[in-house]
Amino acid sequence: MHIRFPHPTRTDAVGVRAQALRLCGILIILLWLASCRQAEITPTPQLAPVDPQPAVAQTPAPASTTGVHSPADQRPLVVWMPSSVMPPPQSAGGALLAQTLTEFSAAQSGQQVEVLRKADEGQAGMVSYLRNAQQVAPTILPDLILIDTQHLWQVAELGLIRPLTQTQMVHREGFYNFAQDAIMLNERRYGVPYFANVIHLAYDTRAVDTPPSTWEGLLQSGYRFTFTAGGRGGQADEWVLLHFLQSGGQWVRGDGEQLQPTLTMFASIERARAEGVFPGDLMGFTTPGAVWSALLSGATETASVPARLYLTQRGGAPTVMPAPLPGVAEGPKTLATVYAFAILATDQQRQEWSLALIDRLLAPEVHGRWALSESWLPTREEAFQQWPVNDEYVGLLQDLLTTAAAPPSERSFMELSKQLQHALSGIISGELTPEAAAQEFAP
């Protein structure tokens, strides 16, 4: 596996006429797009050490087979993955991915695969990169992406992905229900689920003997509760979204009356604030890591944390234990984040290669081991065959996944999430009453 880092491009525009300046600007964009290939994985039998400027390695190509493009005249199958998901080359997950790509190449008559790392968010994030590449350098667009399903609608709006056909999905089944929901747009499938993350309760056993199983029980317990109330990018935290759903709220406007469920939720949050259940600096918690630190330091007795954080940190926190989140009512016990593969390739052969690669990565021995090594959750139950069988936490995760919900990938949901975050901030700060927040949210 080799990693190539981008190099900055400079141009001197002094004295250039307006027309030339415009052309130079376009050239800069093209060079920037081409230089931002931050990491490349090629199917080599072993991982190579990181080299600041290595040549791109290619595995030896077998002789061309009738009816199959020769690697000599066929560019690599290009896959983009976000930084949060793509494993480091030296890790167990990186070695497994490199081995899997090698096996894929051998099975596909030497067809090479190039995996490139992209940022999760921001101007260099995958969606922004796709949008810019589509406009000025469409030839560098990938064949396949692994993407947070909350961004699927944006890629679909660009016209870069199309619904998968029934034939393409015929044997790609066995996913948890929430994972299937996450890849739906207008009742059609736009991807193949792969990784997931869920939230659950984490509690300090030095202060809590038995964690509350209901939200009312937590309110009466005297324990403090912390979550990432600061949200992310102006949108609400997963616990807020789950609380809204459990209160009877609808994620898609028009699916039902919103005023009463919203008022119920906001009144519950106001009560928790007034009774000191939340820490005074609650809105300052913007990352799961900050919540985890508060739990370890004794600043809170209970908290909502992502499973991936708990998986990576539990070895150094023997006094912290997991449990389902205290529920408001019957319904989903957790909220899931999902990453799914989506095909951008328009050529039929490259679509078939993309599906063949997805199938190889979905094999339980790859899917389960990769998820375990990088602390993600697989979206298929059979992949858990690769996980420890006597670990009670694994059993808890499997139970949570069977009752999880995943938010829809829609522009309207993004706006709803932002409105919930605005209302939460107003209630926690005391600037909004539950009634005023509910009227503002559901006029």
How would you characterize the overall build of this protein?
By secondary structure, the chain is α/β, with parallel strands linked by helices. It folds into 2 domains: 18-55 and 70-195 and 337-392, D-Maltodextrin-Binding Protein, domain 2, CATH 3.40.190; 197-336 and 399-441, D-Maltodextrin-Binding Protein, domain 2 (3-Layer(aba) Sandwich), CATH 3.40.190.10. It has helices at residues 18-35, 92-107, 126-136, 152-157, 166-169, 177-182, 215-221, 238-246, 259-274, 288-297, 307-313, 348-362, 364-373, 392-402, 411-429, 434-441; strands at 40-41, 77-82, 113-118, 144-148, 184-185, 188-189, 192-204, 225-226, 302-306, 320-323, 334-343, 377-378, 404-405. The strands form 2 sheets. Strands 1, 2, 3, 4, 7, 8, 9, 10, 11, 12 and 13 form an 11-stranded mixed β-sheet that branches. A two-stranded antiparallel ribbon has the order 5-6. Helix 2 (92-107) crosses helix 12 and helix 15 (411-429) packs antiparallel against helix 16. The chain is globular.
Question: What's the quick description here?
Answer:
By secondary structure, the chain is of the alpha/beta class.
Question: How does CATH name the architecture of the largest domain?
Answer: 3-Layer(aba) Sandwich
Major sheet details: 11 strands, mixed
Strand content: 5-15%
* General shape: globular
Quote the average pLDDT: 85
- Secondary-structure element series: HEEHEHEHHHEEEHEHHHEHEEHHEHEHH
Looking at CATH, the homologous superfamily of the largest domain is Periplasmic binding protein-like II
**Discrete helix count:** 16
State the total count of DSSP E strands.
13
Q: Oligomer, anyone?
A: single chain
